[in-house]
Amino acid sequence: MIRTADEVAAGVRAGTLDPVRITEEALERISARDDTIGAFRRVRALEALAEARAIGARPDRADLPLAGVPIAVKDVVAVSGEFAEWGSRAGSRQVAGADGEIVARLRAAGAVVVGLSRVPELCSWPSTDTAEGISRNPAAPEYVAGGSSGGSAAAVAAGMVPLAHGTDALGSIRGPAAICGVLGIMPGAGVVPASDSGLFCGLYRHGALATTAADAALLLAVLAQRPDLGRVTEPGPLRVAVSTRVPVTGASVPKAMTAAVTQVAKQLRDAGHSITAATPRYGTAVLTGAAARWFAGPAEHAAEFAPSRLQPRTRTHVRIGRFVSRAGLVREGPRREWISRAGEFFADHDVLLTPAQAALPAKAQLWSRKSWLANLPQARASGFLTPWNLAGYPALSVPAGRHPSGVPIGVQLVAPPGGEPRLLALAGQLEKLRAR
C-alpha cells in the first residue's frame, strides 16, 4: 500500500521511516509505470536520493511538515541545476543556479523533488504531450491526463508520488485532477504569493494535487506559508448551491457527470447541509474576459521563446493573442462585472457544486503535432472551471465516480475568497462518506 504524504512525513519526523528508502520506493514506482503513463519530463533519481539523505541528517527533521515526502514539481518553476522547459523546445536550456520561491518552500518543508512533471507547450492546452511523450490517464490510458498540470495529476493518480505541485490559469489543476481521479485545489488569488502570478494576465496560481484532503491541505499550507491551512476540520452546516448548466454556452454535459453531481449533492444533504438548485449569473463577461486572457497570456510569455521553434498550434495561438492585446481586448471591465455577480451569488450561498468537466477528455495522441483548429474543441471541457480563475475564487475538484468509458469523474466545489479551509473540509467529509 502506498503511504499518504501525511503518513510519510509523520514517520520520517518520528524516525520510524527512512527518507532514503521512501524515495527509493517512489523511484521504483516511477521506473515501473512511467514508460506507459508519461507523467515526467525529467526524473531526478540521483539528486532525489541525495536530497533524501540530507533530510535524514537535518537537525530540524522533527519539525518539517513535508519531511521526506517525494513530490513531483510541474516543469514551469526554477529548480536548482535544472531548466524549466514549459513543454517547449523553443526556450532556454540554461539551468537555474538556485531554487525559485516555490521549490525553496518545498525544500524548506522537507520535501524531496523526485522529478519535473510534463506540461503542454506554454501550458496553453488541456492535454499534455511533448515531442518526447504523452501524459496518459492512469485509469484509462487511451485518454489524456488533461492539462496543463497533466503530468502532475498522472503522477499522483498512478501512485508514483503522494503529492504534486501544479498551476492553474484556466482549470489546469482541477481539470487533470478530475479526469485522473485525484483531488486538486486551486487557491484564491494571492493565497500563494509568487513572482509569476502575473502570467496569463493575472489568472495564474500555484496549487496542489493529492489523493486525500489532508495531503492537499498539507501541501497548500507549505506553498502559501500558512500553517493554518494544513488542518482539515469538520464543516459546519453549509448552504450549498448546485448547478449543472455550463456557463454561458449551456452546452450539454455527459449524463454520468451530471449524475455524479446529483449523487454528491445527496450525500451532502444527508450530512446536514442545505442543498439548493442555483446558478450564478455568469453573463458574457465570463467568456470574453477568460478567452482574451487565454490568448493574450501565452502570447506575452512567448516573447521569451524562439518563435520559429514553437509548435504550429502555439504559433497560431500567439498570433491571435498578439492581435487580442493590440486591440485592447484584455479589459478589466468584464472581469469586474463578473466578480460583482459572483459576490452577489455567494451572498446567499456558502459553496457552489458543479461538474468539474463539461466533456470527456481527448484521446491520447500527439496533439502537439496537430493544428490549432484541431486542438480547439478540447477547450470546451473547461467550461465550469475558467470562471473562477477570472473571479479569483478558490475551487477544487474532488473524485466522484467513473464514466462508462473508464475515465474518472470529478465534481467542482467553489467558495468565496478565504474559503480554502471550507472546501478542504467538505472534501474531507466526502472522503469519509465514500469510505463507508
Output the CATH homologous superfamily of the largest domain. Amidase signature (AS) domain
State the total count of DSSP E strands.
15
Alpha-beta classification:
alpha/beta
Mean pLDDT: 97
Order of helices and strands: HHEHEHEEEEEHEHEHEHEHEHHHEHHEEH
CATH class of the largest domain: Alpha Beta
Query: Which range best describes the helical content: under 10%, 10-25%, 25-40%, 40-55%, 55-70% or over 70%?
Result: 25-40%
Shape: globular
* Sheet with the most strands: spatial strand order: 1-3-2-8-10-9-14-15-13-11-12
Integer count of domains: 2
Q: Give the helix tally.
A: 15
Q: Would you identify the CATH architecture of the largest domain?
A: Alpha-Beta Complex
CATH fold field value of the largest domain? Amidase signature (AS) enzymes
Poorly predicted runs of 5 or more residues: none
CA-CA gap between termini: 19 Å
Computed Rg: 20 Å
Q: Which range does the strand content fall in?
A: 15-25%
Q: Describe the sheet with the most strands.
A: 11 strands, mixed
SSE diagram, text form:
Blueprint: H1 5-14, H2 19-37, E1 40-43, H3 45-57, E2 70-74, H4 101-108, E3 112-117, E4 129-130, E5 133-134, E6 136-137, E7 140-144, H5 150-157, E8 163-168, H6 174-180, E9 183-186, H7 199-202, E10 205-210, H8 213-224, E11 239-242, H9 255-270, E12 274-277, H10 283-301, H11 312-326, H12 332-346, E13 351-355, H13 372-375, H14 386-391, E14 395-402, E15 408-414, H15 420-435
Helix pairs in contact: 2-3, 8-15, 10-11, 10-12
Domain Amidase: 22-424
Protein name: Amidase family protein
Pfam families: Amidase
